[in-house]
Amino acid sequence: MIVVLQKGAKEEDLTNVLKHLKMHGFATHIVRGTEKTIVGAVGDKSRLVNIPLEAMSGVESVIPILAPYKLASREFKPEDTVINVGGIAIGGKDVVIMAGPCSVESKEQIMETAILVKEAGANILRGGAFKPRSSPYSFQGLKEKGLEYLALAREKTGLPIITEVMESENVGIVADYADILQIGARNMQNFTLLRKAAATGKPILLKRGPSATIEEWILAAEYILVEGNQQVIMCERGIRTFETYTRNTLDLSSIPVIKHLTHLPIIVDPSHGTGKWRCVTPMSKAAVACGADGVIIEVHPRPSEALSDGSQSLTPEKFNKLVNELEAVAQATGKALSTPVTDNSKVGV
Ligand code: PEP
Ligand code: MN
Predict the structure, then answer these.
(1) Cα(308) to centroid of ligand 2, in Å?
(2) What is the CATH number of the domain that holds 23?
(3) Is there a single domain that holds both residue 177 and residue 325?
(4) 247 C-alpha to center of ligand 2: Å?
(5) CA distance 335 to 342
(6) Pocket residues for ligand 1 (CB within 6 Å)?
(7) Which residue has a Cα nearest atom 1 of ligand 1?
(8) CA-to-CA distance for 57 and 294, rounded, in angstroms?
(9) CATH number, domain containing residue 107
(10) Is the domain of 55 the same as that of 94?
(11) CA nearest 150: which of 233, 142, 96?
(12) What's the Rg (C-alpha) of the chain?
């Protein structure tokens, strides 16, 4: 439930409400808005028998949250969550572009790609060092070396970096390098990993599982929020359907749904969402038209030589064209593309 405090309620009122809730076994989360303070309380309401919260000093109202997720819900936090990553606002008024190769393959490859995507207008560099591959025989990533190369690319370009963390035991090392931790689609319901990643306090991009309903996906986000980490970015990357022509079916309807049900930013991955480079530009435009806060795009200098996901990767030239076309779509929705990073000193881990 949500306890809304009156405008001008005293600090002491808040303390008493928190004390009362804790005494009855509730976990509490405070959101201080510009007008009012609200307390999200998760626990068993039937235990609040003696003093009704409504009767306490400074309390304006008590609103039950009927959805199974609480902290992620719009009722809990009506304003959009905006996440700041090295000076780039995700979930704000501008559309953010993350781009880079599926996998970090070598120092030269990530450097070359980072420079090219930055020149084209990308705000954040992606690249996998620990790779979740469907086959154990496929390239598994450069692991820590890959993280080091990503950090070098950040140093060179000033672009913050996002990279996947696959296992709980690697959370520490990945968090030492990354500006945003990516939880891959296959790990969306790896609750131990979600908790550990949340505990780093880093922003987390949470990919939708290939077979996850929207509610399951939001509940996975709730695992991160309940650990006290409010920096969750949802990422739609396609779901498994009967269609086989595309790798997945990109569920763009999840954008307005996530926006309606939650306060979290949502970005779209049309590369994994379709598996086909030809679909990436049209689906990126569609995503921005639907209200996505950004896109994450796979770009490789030579897709035919890529060690993973070459068939869904754009060349830097095609990516450049996509960014130009996206600008017009962003403007049509009353937004703009986020201005590219220019100041290296803004980025820090
Ligand atoms: C990736 O981003 O390279 C990746 C493996 O994505 P997903 O988890 O969406 O399959
Ligand atoms: Mn990939």
Answers:
(1) 6
(2) 3.30.70.1140
(3) yes
(4) 11
(5) 20
(6) 102, 128, 132, 184-186, 207, 237, 269, 272
(7) 102
(8) 43
(9) 3.20.20.70
(10) no
(11) 142
(12) 21
Residues 125-142: pLDDT tens digits?
999 999 989 999 999 999
Which of 63, 91, 116 is the last residue in one of the domains? 63
Residue pair 210/248 in contact (Cβ under 8 Å)? The answer is yes
pLDDT tens for 27-82 read: 898 988 888 899 999 888 777 777 789 999 999 999 988 899 999 999 999 899 99
Helix (H, G, I), strand (E, B) or coil at 253: coil
The span from the CA of 44 to the CA of 27, in Å, is 10
The angle that helices 316-332 and 277-289 make with each other, rounded to 10 degrees, is: 20
On whether the CB atoms of residues 294 and 95 are closer than 8 A, the answer is yes
Q: How far is the CA of 124 from the centre of ligand 1 (A)?
A: 16
- Domain extent for 41: 2-63
Indicate whether 10 and 147 sit together in one domain: no
207 alpha carbon, closest ligand: 1
Which of 237, 262, 233, 255 minimizes the C-alpha distance to 247? 237
What is the percent of the chain with per-residue pLDDT over 70, rounded to a whole number? 97
Scanning 24-102, the segments in alpha helix (DSSP H) are none
DSSP β-bridge partners for residue 95: 337
Atom in ligand 1 nearest the alpha carbon of residue 103: 3
Q: Which of 62, 60, 57, 47 is nearest to 3 (CA)?
A: 62
d(CA 86, CA 73): 26
Q: Which atom of ligand 1 is nearest to the CA of 186?
A: 8
